[in-house]
Design brief:
Layout: H1 10-19, E1 21-25, E2 30-32, E3 37-38, E4 40-46, E5 49-55, E6 58-65, E7 70-71, H2 73-77, E8 80-81, E9 85-88, E10 92-98, H3 99-108, H4 110-147, H5 149-158
Antiparallel strand pairs: 1-10, 2-9, 3-8, 4-7, 4-10, 5-6, 5-9
Helix pairs in contact: 3-4, 4-5
């Protein structure tokens, strides 16, 4: 993935970082709660953040994000309930920016806004392509379960 700061020059990068709020989260502390309202973009300066969601009462791990990665993009684009939980796996420092603050920066410094939107768009594209690949894999497994009795028995054995 591309850092949201990737396309910024040194001065613009410093300006944007100065506008962001530093936050520190302890290990296992929830940063974004699944279903909770959010309109903040987070950039990981130090640490690891797990992105997961609950499916039928079990945790489905979507990704582990590291330094330089961003999260919260979907609700940053359009404020609303978060589709996943984001939790610090280690002591984590993030830089946070609310959408309203970012809109002000975009008005005053459109080149910063364009650079950040470009990086976020490319990251969302990468995540969508990854999701497409996973869906194709799940489709193939599902088809094999339906069509192949031996595979069905093996698959059931794996989850006993």
């Amino acid at each position: 993935m591309v850092s949201i700061l990737h396309y910024l020059g040194p001065e613009d990068k410093k300006y944007l970082m100065d506008q962001m709020e530093p936050l520190v989260f302890q290990e296992d502390e929830v940063i974004i709660r699944e279903g909770g309202m959010n309109s903040t973009l987070f950039w990981i300066e130090k640490g690891v953040v797990r992105v997961s969601r609950q499916v039928e009462g079990k945790e489905l791990i979507l990704d582990d994000l590291k330094e330089g990665d961003a999260f919260g993009e979907l609700t940053f684009l359009e404020s609303g309930p978060s589709s996943a939980e984001c939790k610090a796996l280690t002591s984590t420092r993030v830089m946070a920016m609310h959408r309203m603050e970012f809109d002000k920066i975009c008005e005053a410094h459109p080149q910063i806004g364009a650079s950040v939107w470009l990086a976020m768009s490319l990251n969302l594209k990468e995540r969508l392509l990854k999701t497409n690949d996973l869906l194709a894999s799940y489709f193939n497994i599902s088809r094999s379960l339906m069509e192949n009795e031996q595979f069905r028995k093996f698959y059931a054995y794996c989850f006993q």
